[in-house]
Design a protein that fits this description.
heterodimer; A: mainly alpha; two-stranded antiparallel sheet; two-stranded antiparallel ribbon; 13 helices; about 70% helix; B: about 375 residues; alpha/beta; Rossmann fold; 2 domains; seven-stranded mixed sheet; five-stranded parallel sheet; transmembrane helix (chain A); membrane (chain A); BCAA_transport_permease (chain A); ABC_transp_permease (chain A)
Chain lengths: ~300, ~375
């Protein structure tokens, strides 16, 4: 008989992987697919969680309204982020600037600056301690599935992540907007020459990706029951690792690698001390980069 | 950004704002995390220090005291830089802080060379006071708390225990202080492991821990990690009793964990419900500055640490020097603080009385056994 302990660890790993995937989807859309270096996604996630929390404590609305509120804040945050940290670097439209790697890489610092300002501002307004979410809103009621115990949130997160993944795949491969996004990412100058409104395409991608980030933030807040300014950092790193392992531009690849990360962390806990389980996940990243420099699911292509 | 001088003085009220550096002002340094992941602790310490300082300066003493707060971000490198800065300021006669044992010990190396007395409200690693004769602390060490809790759990009949703690200097002292005492009492430690501070998901660790089938779990964590751990323990339907150290004693633990905190046992040296006038005075002052929130144990220790330092400065005056303040600190005996009477032993350890506490009905309740 198979030890139910391993089944439980596998279930925990999958649920952990799902939480990473939830964050990785929006992150990969902006960073990977659109090919724009963006390090402020973690703060979008935090903003989504705080928006939800403020809404809950102010008016105690139904949970769907909380998520819609977080989505609205996410869209607004994504739009503003693009305006503040990315648009100024596109103001030169001559060929040299459009081809310049330095111009595109400079958003690494501008987005990082925005993320620091947002985090510190949240700390000033809300304080840096963990804030609790009212218990009625939490999505962590235990559910027993055979020998394994999960919580309601695991199923909600699975549903949301699957919907995001399928929706985005449809958007990217079957619609003109998706085609435009891929064209801009592939060759911004060429896209411009064939008449694509690159500005609008980039803004749309930021808004969609940031709405997903904000939704991930509020869901994680409700899942773990704690919201605090630094909460976006660790998921941001995990999402980054999943994206790189998955080959940067592949959203299904990022999701699968997020699941691999989650499972390897929970399984590693069985064999090594919990303090070392992160190392197993990052070890996978290093192995991937050595043996599959383009990631497990990536196509060969020039990157920023 | 690096050296943010955050708050300087609260003595303007006395009307000598113009002569802040006159001979009748004594300066102290306080290094603590005011930003970063542990900022909530540092912010609380500053609040507690300001209460103590305002009281001292309003009491009509022959001199005023000023505290320079510097933000260490709980970063050892930053802590050492602040220590050099404090040492270079000839007017500073004593230093409070830092928050974590790691940063306190790093800064202690600088204070040791310069002969600057250092009093930490929270550094509980056994090696901290061993750095030099200038290091004092106002907290029970894990060398005191571990055996105390081991005895408590043995008396409850828990022979086979699991112990987990965060992966820090402090966490290691929790595990070693407790495990040694359990073995000395004839018990067994079935499981012992460290986790990374700030871990979100404890379910893998909990499943692994439960495989060892312990009678009880002893934990070395702060309230953030503690709340997540307790909630996930409840989610997995595990009923094994949990014991913890005074570090988890904070109202935030119950706020964050809710019903999952019920039945947790821990030790403390501060009870906000203590009816004695000085405790109630501190709790009232704290509530006034924190929207009615009740202080946990750490702010109480900071409040006492600042008052112990102020008493030492007063004893060393007129013209206190670093050496005189150190000697005055070392002579502290039965200081009546909100965390009980504090005396420093010959090796500069605070001898604290510990109280047993259990979470019952959403509150910390003192228990006899």
């Amino acid at each position: 008989m198979f030890d139910p302990y391993y089944l439980q660890q596998l279930a925990i790993g999958l649920s952990l992987g799902m939480t990473y995937a939830l964050m990785a989807i929006g992150f990969t859309l902006i960073f990977g697919v659109l090919n724009v270096v963006n390090f402020a996604h973690g703060e979008i996630y935090t903003l989504g969680a705080f928006a939800g929390l403020v809404l809950i404590s102010a008016t105690a609305p139904p949970i769907v309204a909380v998520i819609l509120g977080a989505l609205a804040i996410g869209a607004l945050a994504g739009f503003s982020l693009e305006r503040i940290a990315f648009k100024p670097f596109r103001r030169f439209t001559d060929e040299a600037s459009l081809k310049s790697r330095a111009m595109r890489e400079s958003t690494l610092l501008s987005s990082l600056a925005v993320s620091i300002v947002v985090r510190e501002a949240l700390e000033i307004v809300f304080g840096s301690q963990m804030r609790s979410v009212p218990f009625d809103y939490l999505i962590n009621t235990p559910v027993r599935v055979g020998p394994v115990i999960l919580v309601t949130g695991d199923f909600i997160i699975f549903g949301v992540a699957a919907a995001m993944l399928i929706g985005l795949q449809y958007l990217l491969t079957r619609t003109r907007v998706g085609l435009a996004i891929r064209a801009v990412s592939n060759n911004p100058l060429g896209a411009k020459y064939v008449g694509i409104d690159t500005d609008r395409t980039i803004i749309t991608t930021f808004v969609v990706g940031s709405m997903m980030g904000a939704a991930a933030g509020i869901l994680m807040g409700l899942y773990y029951g704690a919201v605090f300014p630094a909460m976006g950092f660790t998921p941001g790193i995990k999402a980054f690792v999943a994206m790189v392992m998955g080959g940067l531009s592949s959203i299904p690849g990022a999701v699968i690698c997020a699941l691999i990360l989650g499972i390897s962390e929970s399984m590693a806990t069985t064999f090594v001390s919990s303090g070392w389980s992160d190392m197993v996940a990052y070890g996978f990243l290093i192995l991937t980069l050595i043996f599959f420099p383009n990631g497990l699911f990536g196509a060969r292509r020039e990157r920023v | 950004m690096k050296f943010r001088l955050l708050t300087l003085t609260t003595l303007a009220a006395a009307g000598i704002a113009g002569s802040a550096f006159a001979a009748d002002t004594v300066k102290l340094g306080y290094q603590l995390p005011l930003t970063g992941d542990t900022a909530q602790y540092g912010q609380d310490f500053r609040k507690a220090a300001e209460i103590a300082l305002t009281e001292f300066n309003a009491a009509g003493k022959p001199f005023k005291v000023e505290i320079v707060f510097e933000d260490s971000r709980s970063d050892a490198k930053e802590g050492t830089n602040i220590a050099r800065k404090f040492v270079d300021d000839k007017e500073i006669v004593g230093v409070l802080g830092d928050f974590t044992s790691g940063v306190s010990m790093a800064a202690a190396q600088v204070y040791k060379e310069a002969g600057m007395p250092q009093l930490s409200q929270t550094a509980s690693h056994p090696d901290y006071t061993k750095v030099s004769k200038y290091q004092f602390r106002n907290i029970a060490t894990q060398a005191q708390e571990g055996p105390y809790n081991a005895k408590w759990m043995a008396a409850k009949g828990f022979k086979n225990v699991a112990v987990i703690a965060e992966q820090t200097d402090w966490g290691q002292s929790v595990v070693s202080g407790f495990s040694d005492a359990v073995k000395a009492n004839g018990g067994t430690v079935a499981f012992s492991e460290f986790f990374n501070r700030g871990l979100k998901d404890y379910r893998s660790l909990i499943s692994k821990l439960e495989r060892a089938k312990p009678d009880a779990i002893y934990t070395g964590f702060f309230y953030e990690d503690g709340a997540q751990f307790l909630k996930q323990l409840q989610q997995l339907g595990i009923k094994t009793p949990v014991y913890s150290t005074s570090a988890a004693y904070s109202p935030k633990l119950i706020e964050l964990a809710g019903g999952a905190a019920e039945g947790v046992h821990l030790t403390s040296n501060f009870l906000p419900t203590d009816p004695s006038p000085n405790v109630q005075h501190f709790v009232d002052e704290w509530k006034k500055r924190s929207d009615g929130a009740v202080p946990g144990q750490f702010p109480a220790q900071a409040y006492d640490a600042v008052r112990i330092m102020l008493a030492a400065v007063e004893k060393a005056s007129p013209n206190p020097t670093r050496e005189k303040v150190r000697d005055a600190l070392a002579q502290t005996k039965d200081f009546p603080g909100v965390t009980g009477k504090t005396s420093f032993s010959a090796d500069r350890e605070a001898e604290k009385e510990l109280v047993k506490v259990e979470v019952k009905g959403g509150a910390f309740v003192p228990v006899a056994d």
